[in-house]
């Protein structure tokens, strides 16, 4: 099945945004790929690259022209995200956009003060057709994300304790996104997880197995984790945000497994082992 819809994907040069661009194109949709720096952006030729900076409403207005839908992502670990995204929702409404898919995070609906939850609430009250996706931690964090440099050095250093996480691949999130736009699943929220919850020692064992290297998980104290990312230049607000995320992991809040991916796409989400086998060259 193909679709004639035109969708703007924000954060299109990121891991998730890029996967969403490809999934929408595969459905036959017209895609605007939004990025803060379109010059030199490596995006599919079939997508139209456009500049969008949330704080620059002229760029927002231009990017929103002629759309059926908007895939909206917040800047990572940004506690000021509501102040940036809520005006974009307003402008999307006045531009006549009928469907916004907002990428949130698993569990934020349990904390009304969470920045992403504030955006969810604003979107739900906006009068625009919406779908909220709440994925768990990405599997790709280990291959191309912030954990990859650690693993290259032979270890995973996190304040995750023994908490388990139902990691999900961005490919499954992208597949859900494309189906949600195609099927117009409006006024709905979905919690997206992988098929099983693993602790980081289990993750390290799988990565060791597929890479042929010895990779250890080191459960460190929160203060040490925060200082490590602070030393790498992470802003203090983002450090505090990261700390909250791993507090949730230690408390077991990231371990829930849902069937929403299968319900929407008709297939089970990829397992962490299968993901690691596909990406094994990254860690060798």
In short:
The protein is an alpha/beta fold and 284 residues long.
Q: What can you see in these coordinates?
A:
The protein is of the alpha/beta class. The chain has a domain at 6-135 and 168-192 and 256-265: Rossmann fold (3-Layer(aba) Sandwich), CATH 3.40.50.720. Helices cover 39% and strands 15% of the residues. It contains 11 helices and 9 strands. The protein has helices spanning 15-26, 57-63, 81-94, 115-124, 148-152, 170-183, 200-211, 222-231, 236-250, 260-265, 272-278, and strands spanning 6-9, 30-35, 48-51, 69-73, 99-103, 129-135, 155-158, 188-192, 216-219. It has a 7-stranded parallel beta sheet, with helices on both faces. Strands 7-9 form a two-stranded parallel sheet. Helix 3 (81-94) links the parallel strand 4 (69-73) and strand 5 (99-103). Helix 3 (81-94) runs parallel beside helix 4, helix 7 packs parallel to helix 11 and helix 8 (222-231) runs antiparallel to helix 9. The longest helix has 15 residues, at 236-250. It is globular, with a radius of gyration of 19 Å. It starts with 5 loop residues before the first strand and ends in a 6-residue tail after the last helix. The mean pLDDT is 96.
């Amino acid at each position: 099945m193909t679709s004639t819809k035109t969708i703007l994907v924000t954060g299109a040069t990121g891991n998730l945004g890029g996967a969403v661009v490809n999934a929408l194109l595969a459905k036959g949709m017209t895609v605007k790929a939004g990025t803060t720096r379109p010059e030199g952006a490596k995006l599919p030729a079939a997508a139209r690259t456009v500049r969008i900076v949330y704080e620059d409403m002229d760029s927002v207005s231009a990017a929103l022209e002629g759309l059926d839908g908007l895939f909206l992502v917040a800047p990572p670990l940004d506690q000021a995200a509501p102040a940036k995204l809520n005006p974009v929702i307003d402008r999307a409404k006045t531009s006549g956009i009928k469907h916004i898919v907002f990428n949130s995070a698993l569990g934020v609906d349990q904390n009304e003060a969470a920045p992403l939850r504030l955006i969810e609430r604003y979107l739900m009250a906006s009068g625009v057709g919406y779908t909220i996706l709440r994925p768990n931690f990405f599997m790709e964090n280990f291959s191309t994300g912030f954990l990859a440099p650690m693993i290259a050095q032979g270890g995973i250093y996190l304040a995750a304790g023994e908490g388990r996480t139902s990691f999900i691949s961005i490919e499954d999130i992208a597949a859900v996104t494309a189906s949600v736009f195609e099927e117009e699943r409006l006024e709905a929220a979905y919690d997206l997880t992988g098929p099983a919850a693993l602790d980081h020692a289990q993750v390290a064992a799988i990565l060791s197995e597929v890479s042929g290297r010895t990779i250890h998980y080191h459960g460190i104290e929160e203060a040490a984790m925060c200082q490590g990312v602070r030393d790498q230049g992470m802003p203090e607000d983002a450090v505090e945000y990261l700390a909250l995320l791993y507090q949730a992991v230690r408390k077991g809040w990231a371990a829930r497994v849902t069937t929403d991916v299968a319900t929407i796409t008709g297939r089970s989400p990829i397992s962490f082992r299968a993901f690691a086998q596909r990406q094994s060259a990254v860690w060798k």
